[in-house]
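Hello, quick one for you while I still have it in my head. No rush at all, and the record is pasted right below.
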Amino acid sequence: MEKDKLFHLKFNLEGNAGHILWNKDDKTTVEAAVKLLRNRFGSTGQNERFRAELKARRRKPGEHLQHLYQDISRLIALAYPNKTDEVTNLVARDAFLDALNNRGFVMRIMDKDPTNLDEALNQAIRLESYLDDYSATEPGRSSADRPSRQKEHFSRAVTEEDYHLSSQGAQALDLSEERMIRSSRRV
């Protein structure tokens, strides 16, 4: 029974994990194999590393808030395993706010008094959507802020006949405009 479990474990593992167990002798127990795998590939005893990653985590340019939230949640679970108390919620919230790396944005979120990571995310999403809407409709924004459009190029060969027709059309338009102006003065 023990040999069967070990065989199935060895058979189902791939990559580096599989290579480690294939090099073990026949006297290795399932318990020893699992312990070896946990030491080599598990997160046990690596809490400090995940806390350091959590502290250093910053939002990347163009990164969505949801992705940042998920990564912070993952790091919290690894840095503080088996803990879901009020202190852990505050640590997660603060790590998320620090990762935003925008002091003014964080201050606006903190004005809403989020008590945990979920509330901080909701406020951040709401504020970011307001800011995006405002900057998209802001009348005084510079042309550098507007999305660039590709310029269109037109070319057409103009013949003498086209030129004469267009100049006659322009004269006709000038006459009709003049008539409209005169009629509006009479009214």
In short: The two ends are 107 Å apart (CA to CA). Residues 2-41 form one domain.
